[in-house]
Specification:
It is built from eleven helices and twelve strands. Helix 2 packs parallel to helix 3 and helix 3 packs parallel to helix 5. The protein has a twelve-stranded mixed beta sheet. It is of the alpha/beta class and 338 residues long. The protein is 30% helix and 17% strand. The structure holds S-adenosylmethionine and iron/sulfur cluster (2 copies). S-adenosylmethionine binds next to strand 3, strand 5 and helix 11.
Length: 338
């Protein structure tokens, strides 16, 4: 099949699948508890794609060029039998890489079974080593120890682990150096993510963003860094290495240095909508096609149509201060997956 390209000639390579919109955390920048309270209408079970449905879609995406799958959410480890699902994806010919992004809360329990299922790498989010700051940021008072135990369990099980830290100015920027020192010492890769204006509920302001170049400067002053060449086209993190070590650090400059021109990612929500950007306002429903007897060729046709007309470059437009962007009603991060 001819390689699929969007309007800016970007191929479709990565698929991020949200397996649930629920989460056991209430991170202030993602699912603030004032909005995601006890009455929040999460998706009912019958609306979630089943593993069979997701597998069918992945097989079709592979025919269009997808090689990598990232499982996300909400909190993906809350989806029952996630290990079985990982095992099934691993058997799909053409999938070269499977990863999960998790808050780590359930990792201690699940790390071994995920490894046995064929998972080899995982990204764990952790925003601070200070219980008070972290407890406030995760909205549930969950202590740092819980996540560190999850990370340790994952490493013991044999998984390669990366840690993601979202930096919000005035909230956890004082934790940048302690986090860098701690994970350097352990030889773990830490990646800093610029706080983004995803969704409509986190009250984002540009003032809250600490540009990655300042973080880099701060760390480099104390622990000298050298750049590492990208592994592949479209690599999201700018990678560095602590001089004289093998330990890497990364920067995801989603706000200050947009990387839309190499964005090869499609996203599938837990209820089967296809999105072509994290900042999308709407998605294309695939679930009705799956449940109402569409053939593989018909579904392929729809996905191709969506990708061919794709013009998304939200972060570039944000940098250009494009008018009207702020008024857009975007999809929430916990629904579409990070
Ligand atoms: N629950 C899992 C977790 O937290 O790792 C997976 C889903 S979460 C939406 C995926 C990633 O997005 C996490 O690393 C999280 O920190 C990041 N994230 C969420 N909201 C964000 C925001 N407003 N700006 C930047 N990153 C964000
Ligand atoms: Fe949950 Fe992850 Fe969002 Fe935090 S960032 S609320 S852990 S989905
Ligand atoms: Fe990709 Fe959209 Fe992010 Fe740009 S803003 S990198 S197009 S997801």
């Amino acid at each position: 099949m001819e390689k699929l390209r969007d309007r800016y000639q970007r191929p479709l390579r990565d698929l991020r699948i949200s397996v649930t919109d629920k989460c056991n955390f209430r991170c202030e920048y993602c699912m603030p508890k004032e909005i995601f309270g006890p009455d929040y209408p999460f998706l009912p079970k019958e609306k979630l794609l089943t593993f069979d449905e997701m597998e069918r879609l992945i097989r079709l995406f592979v025919r269009l060029g997808v090689e990598k799958v990232r499982i996300t959410g909400g909190e993906p480890l809350m989806r029952p039998h996630l290990d079985q699902w990982v095992e099934r994806i691993g058997k799909i010919e053409g999938i070269q890489d499977i990863a999960i992004t998790t808050n780590g809360f359930l990792l201690k329990k699940q790390a071994k079974s995920l490894y046995r299922a064929g998972l080899r790498r995982i990204t764990v989010s952790l925003d601070s080593l200070d219980d008070e700051v972290f407890g406030r940021m995760n909205g549930q008072g969950i202590p740092v120890r819980t996540v560190l135990e999850g990370i340790d369990a994952a490493k013991e099980a044999g998984l390669s682990v990366k840690i993601n830290m979202v930096v919000k100015k005035g909230v956890n920027d004082q934790d940048i150096l302690p986090m860098a020192r701690f994970f350097k010492e352990r030889g773990d890769t830490l990646r800093f993510i610029e706080y983004m204006d995803v969704g409509n509920s986190n009250g984002w302001k540009l003032d809250h963003v600490l540009p990655s170049r300042f973080i880099l400067e701060r760390i480099n002053e104390e622990m000298p860094l050298e750049p590492v060449n990208p592994h592949y086209f479209g690599e999201v993190a700018k990678r560095y290495r602590y001089v004289g070590t093998d330990t890497e650090i990364g920067f995801i400059t989603s706000v200050t240095q947009a990387f839309c021109s190499t964005c090869t990612r499609a996203r599938l929500s837990a209820d089967g909508k296809l999105f072509t950007c994290l900042f999308a306002t709407e998605g294309r429903e695939l679930r009705p096609l799956l449940r109402e007897g569409a053939t593989d060729e018909e579904i392929l046709q729809v996905i191709q149509e969506v990708w061919r007309v794709r013009e998304d470059r939200y972060s570039e437009l944000r940098l250009l201060n494009t008018k009207g962007l702020k008024k857009r009603r975007k999809i929430e991060m916990s629904y579409i997956g990070g």
